[in-house]
């Protein structure tokens, strides 16, 4: 490495990847970091607005407007709500970004990041109107969970080269079922519906995950474990952080006080943010793979 940022690929020299810091210097672009910083700066800036102005920007379900449908997702009335969302963003988005660029999925990340920014507020506000009531909506929690919905696909792309078996995008739903099982089984208020969703999701995640595990064991017995490049500190720890977030962040993204206060609408929006973003990112990944396959066949 010569200190430039020209290459998108990590060179393997004598069976060893470059230092993690070198990889970051090569692949992380300063202008992209600036773009990533806009979101927390924006929600912090809106928090400094006068109280009357902030309340005027909230989304009234009985009197919705196009403007408030969008801007209400950047408005916070309480400092603890703001800080929780800023912390969630700081954990989820940079991790997803690093996993994506190191897995050569920069374009997919930025496509979904822009989609969440531009379309996410309108989608979540529109779906929220399915349950009309005399209340207001505000806060970035739904958007943070939408960013979280990109994480499983980024994590999959990062770890895919470690598998001997043919790990494909068709295996991605196992991560979706895992997160849905955690959300419905541990976080959401207990009901017949949530218990049923938790059981079905848990069974699907275990069966699907078990199938992948058995397939991988058989592949390693047949083909052996291929030589892997030595991975300096950072390459392994990054996906570990991603797994911890994948399993643990739903517990933070659905705060217990919201459940205790019976504010189910917020839980509904949080879940929708994750589910819609995951499906959109999954479709984007499948489209990317199909395009690569078609290009290869054409050659």
UniProtKB/TrEMBL annotation:
Keywords: Membrane, Transmembrane, Transmembrane helix
Transmembrane region(s): 33-49, 82-102, 109-130, 136-159, 171-188, 194-214, 235-252, 264-284
Record-given protein name: Rhomboid family protein
């Amino acid at each position: 490495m010569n200190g430039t940022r020209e290459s998108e690929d990590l060179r393997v020299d004598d069976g060893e990847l470059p230092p993690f810091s070198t990889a970051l210097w090569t692949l992380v672009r300063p202008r992209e970091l600036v773009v990533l910083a806009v979101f927390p700066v924006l929600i912090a800036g809106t928090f400094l607005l006068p109280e009357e102005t902030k309340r005027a920007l909230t989304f009234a379900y009985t009197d919705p407007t196009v403007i408030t449908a969008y801007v209400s997702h950047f408005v916070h009335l309480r400092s603890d709500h703001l800080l929780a969302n800023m912390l969630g963003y700081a954990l989820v988005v940079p991790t997803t970004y690093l996993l994506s660029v190191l897995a050569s999925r920069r374009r997919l990340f930025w496509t979904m990041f822009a989609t969440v920014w531009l379309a996410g507020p309108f989608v979540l506000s529109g779906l929220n109107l399915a349950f009309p009531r005399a209340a207001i909506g505000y806060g970035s929690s739904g958007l943070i969970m939408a960013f979280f919905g990109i994480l499983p696909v980024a994590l999959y792309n990062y770890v895919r080269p470690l598998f001997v078996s043919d790990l494909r995008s068709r295996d991605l739903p196992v991560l979706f079922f895992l997160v849905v099982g955690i959300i419905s089984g541990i976080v959401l208020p207990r009901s017949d519906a949530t218990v049923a969703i938790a059981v079905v999701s848990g069974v699907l995640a275990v069966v699907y995950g078990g199938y992948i595990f058995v397939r991988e064991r058989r592949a390693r017995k047949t083909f052996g474990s291929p030589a892997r490049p030595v991975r300096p500190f950072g390459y392994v720890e990054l996906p570990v952080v991603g797994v911890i977030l994948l399993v643990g962040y739903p517990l933070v993204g659905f705060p217990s006080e919201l459940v205790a206060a019976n504010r189910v609408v917020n839980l509904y929006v949080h879940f929708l943010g994750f589910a819609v973003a995951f499906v959109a990112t999954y479709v984007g990944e499948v489209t990317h793979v199909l395009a690569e396959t078609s290009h290869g066949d054409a050659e």
